[in-house]
Amino acid sequence: MIDGDTFRDPRDGQSYRLFGIDACEKDQQAYTSLGQAWPCGAVATTWLASHVVGRTVTCTIIKPDIYGRKLAKCGTQETPDLGAAMVQEGQAIVYRFHGRPTEPAYLPLEAKAQTDHRGIWQGTVKEPYLWRRDHRAGHDQ
Asked: What is the DSSP string of the chain?
């Protein structure tokens, strides 16, 4: 397991990044409505691991990314679309490229997770792409 939206196939070592979503980074924290920190990155990583480890995962590759990973829609028999499930459970947000969602079908799932205060939506969270930018720049999380 690499992080909350990327996993490695143990059979061939290939990395797959779930298309259309962005999960908290491993070291990233979110905050509850009471201001308590909780490890959203570790929680997302654990969620993904619990849904792929020991299961047959089928992926449809969309394209390779700049890091050599395969951007893909992946699923298992139990969870046919892992990206959709992560967004629905509040474990990830819809990935937006220049403000446009790469998977618009996930938007209603994200809105419902926000309304229901699931996962990262139980309080406040910095969008993962902003956290990565600030973390690389040496700013506080």
From this structure: --BTTEEE-TTT--EEEETTEEPPPTT--EEETT--EE-HHHHHHHHHHHHHTTS--EEEEEEE-TTSPEEEEEE-SS-S-HHHHHHHTTS-EE-EETTEES-GGGHHHHHHHHHTT-GGGGEE---HHHHHHHHHTT---
